[in-house]
Amino acid sequence: MLVGDSGVGKTCLLVRFKDGAFLAGSFISTVGIDFRNKVLTVDGVKVKLQVCPHVPGSISLAALALLLLYDVTNKASFDNIQAWLTEIHEYAQQDVVLMLLGNKVDSAQDRVVKREDGEKLAKEYGVPFMETSAKSGLNVELAFTAIAKELKHRSMKLPNEPKFKLHDYVKKEVRGSGCCRS
Ligand SMILES: Nc1nc2c(ncn2[C@@H]2O[C@H](COP(=O)(O)OP(=O)(O)OP(=O)(O)O)[C@@H](O)[C@H]2O)c(=O)[nH]1
Question: What GO cellular-component annotations does this UniProt entry give (predicted)?
Fold first, then answer.
């Protein structure tokens, strides 16, 4: 489930992941989008992800994973992350897979939240972090693949398989926005 303030790009991230396209403008709203299924092949195993944006109301207990988004061009959306985390800790499953995403990094001119600030917050809460762009596609596939891998490892629990470490995987695979690390 995709979670975060209105306008951070939940719908666009979902559409980019599912259809490989970017929706510009505001003609589409999260409430008009429901589940999107996509099958990813992870380490030779097919994992079906059912993704949906969170619509106002409480965080669903049914969600196995939450992608918590803020918009790097909107400070308020970043400041609200702590409130979202509190809500998540209160309402989501205890072992929900959680990842923090700073979206819209293609808008380098309008950036007001530094990458380091996202990293620091994520570290504080012990969640993996990456910056994304639904517009350019940066790290979008990676975010969902990382979740799929974690869920696959959790559900299969093969005895001889080394434990999958989501943090390490994300750190290794994540791409920077290419410029302006300010
Ligand atoms: N530049 C840029 N714009 C984006 C990106 N992602 C989304 N947007 C724009 O941001 C606006 C809001 O995107 P949505 O995907 O509708 O945001 P949302 O979080 O689903 O919003 P709600 O439906 O209100 O909860 C739209 O105008 C998008 O085109 C991105 O990565 N880069």
Answer: membrane
User: What gap in Å lies between CA 166 and CA 152, rounded to an integer?
Assistant: 12
**30 DSSP assignment:** G
Neighbouring-strand partners of residue 5: none
Ligand 1 binding pocket (C-beta < 6 A) is 6-12, 23-26, 28-30, 53, 103-104, 106-107, 133-135
Best residue among 11, 78, 136 to mutate for probing ligand 1's pocket (most ligand atoms within 8 Å of CB) is 11
- Mean pLDDT over 105-114 rounds to 97
Contact 55, 29 (CB under 8 A): no
The secondary element (H helix, E strand) that includes residue 86 is: helix 81-91
In angstroms, what is the span from residue 165 Cα to ligand 1's centroid? 30
| Residue from 1, 12, 22, 84 whose mutation best tests the ligand 1 pocket (most atoms within 8 A of CB) | 12
- With a threshold of 0.90, tell me whether the complex ipTM lies above it: yes
Q: Which residues contact 177 (CB under 8 A, 6 or more apart)?
A: 105, 106, 108, 115, 131, 133, 138
Please give the model's pTM, rounded to 2 decimal places. 0.90
DSSP E strands, 43-149: 45-51, 65-71, 97-103, 129-131
